[in-house]
Amino acid sequence: MQANEIVTFGCRLNAFESEVIRRAAAEAGLEGAIIVNTCAVTAEAERQARQAIRRARRDHPEARIIVTGCAAEIAADRYAAMPEIDLVLGNRAKLQPQSYLPPHPGAPAPAAHGESAARLVDGFEGRARAYLAVQQGCDHRCTFCIIPYARGPSRSVPIGRIAEEARHLVAAGFREIVLTGVDLTAYGADLPGAPSLGQMVRRLLTAIPELDRLRLSSLDPVEIDPELWRLIAEESRLMPHLHLSLQAGDDLILKRMKRRHSRTQAIAVARRARALRPELALGADLIAGFPTETEEMFRRSLDLIEECGLAFVHVFPYSPRPGTPAARMPAVAGAEIKERAGRLRAAGQAALAAELKARIGSETAVLIERPGRGRAEFYAEISFEGAAEAGSVRPMRLVDSSGCSLVGVPVAGASGE
C-alpha cells in the first residue's frame, strides 16, 4: 500500500487535523494521494500552499491531489479552478473518511460541511507529544482575522470525550499532550453547565493521573479563568509555558483590531503568571504593520516583548484578508511592514537568547523527541549527547546555549523513565 502524503500549513490545530486526515484517507482506502491542508491566516500562507500544490503536480504527475483547510474553505472556487487539483474539501468534510472514497458515476461530491468537526485521534506515530483538539471555531470577530469564516462558531468537545481520547494517547506511550483549539479559552461556553477551560483541565488531570505533561496552545489573556490560574500556580503536570494571543501593544491599535484586552492588562497577565510560577516562560503572537499603525504605535508593540518578558515570539507581518474590516482600513506600506516585522523578530531572538542564558545552571525534565533533541518543561529545545529513548523524560542540567536551543547534560544517577 502506497502511503498518502499530507502537506500541512498553519497552526497546531491544522497539524492535529492532518493526522485525522491521514487516518480518514487510509480508512477510505485512498493510496498514493497528496493532500494539502491549507492555512488562510496570511496571504503568504496561501501563496506557499499554491506553490506546494504546483510543485506536487510537477513532481508527481499521476498522483491524486486533494486540497483542504481554511484557504480551501474560504475560496473553494479559486482552488477548484487550479488545473493541478483533483478535489477540494471543506474543513469539516476533510475529517470524514467518506470524503476520500474513490469517485464513481453519479456519486455526489463531498459536502463542504459535514457532521462534527471535533473528531479526535490517537495517532501521531513516532512522536513524543500529541495534539488534542478540544475546541473548534470562534465567536469573536477580530477585524484582521478570516479564520471564524473558515471554522465557524465556537464548539467544545465534552470533557468525557477528551478524557477518553487522552487516555488512549497515554496508553499508546505519549508522555505529553498539547490541548489545542481555534479559541481555546472559549472552551465550554456551549456545553451544559458551561465548564471553563481551567475546570476541564483540572478534571482531565484528575481523571488521568498517569499523564505526565499537559501543555496548552494559544490563550486569550483576558479569558484565563480562576481555576486555570490556580492550576498554573499549583499543578506541576501543567507545563510552565504559556503562549498569549497579544497581537499588539498599543491600545488604539488593539481597539481597531477589536481585541478584548488593553496593553496594561497584557502586562498584568504576564506578571501574574510569572509571579505564580517563577520558572514559567512566556510566548506571544504579535502583528507588525496593522493598518493605521504609526512608528510610535509600533514601538509600543516592540517594547511589549521586554515589558511582558516574552521569550517565544511569533511575528505575523500584517496581511489584508479580503472580506475583513481591517482590509478596508488605511494600509501601512509593504516595505514598512516588512521592516517592522524584522525588528520584532530581532527583538524576539534577543529576548530568547537572554532567556536561555538565564536558564544555564538550572535543571529541567526533558521530553526526548528524537536522537540528541528534546523539549524542556518551559518549551525550549534541548540538545544533548548520548542515547535516550524517544518518548522518555530525562532530568538534565542546562550547561550552555547554542542559537535558539540549550545544551543539556543528563543528571548523574537519574535515569529518567
How would you describe this protein?
With 417 residues, this protein is of the alpha/beta class. Among the domains are: 5-100, Rossmann fold (3-Layer(aba) Sandwich); 118-239, Transcription Regulator spoIIAA (2-Layer Sandwich); 363-410. 34% of the residues lie in helices and 21% in strands. It has helices at 12-27, 43-59, 70-74, 76-80, 147-151, 159-171, 197-207, 226-234, 251-257, 263-276, 295-308, 334-359; strands at residues 5-8, 34-38, 65-69, 87-88, 129-133, 135-136, 155-156, 176-180, 213-216, 241-247, 281-288, 310-317, 363-370, 373-375, 381-383, 393-402, 405-410. A 5-stranded mixed β-barrel has the order 13-14-15-17-16. β2, α2 (43-59) and β3 form a beta-alpha-beta unit. It is globular. The model is unreliable at 105-123 (pLDDT under 50).
Measured as a percent range, the helix fraction is 25-40%
> Which class do the helix and strand fractions yield?
alpha/beta
- Helical stretch count? 12
- What separation lies between the terminal Cα atoms? 35 Å
Tell me the name of the CATH class of the domain at 118-239. Alpha Beta
Mind describing the biggest β-sheet?
5 strands, mixed, barrel
Describe the global form: globular
Number of strands: 17
In which order are the strands of the major sheet placed?
13-14-15-17-16
* CATH fold-level label of the domain at 118-239: Transcription Regulator spoIIAA
Question: How much of the polypeptide forms β-strand, as a percent range?
Answer: 15-25%
**What is the mean pLDDT?**
90
Helices and strands, in N-to-C order?
EHEHEHHEEEHEHEHEHEHHEHEHEEEEE
What CATH architecture of the domain at 118-239 would you give? 2-Layer Sandwich
Radius of gyration: 22 Å
Spans of 5+ residues with little confidence (pLDDT < 50)? 105-123
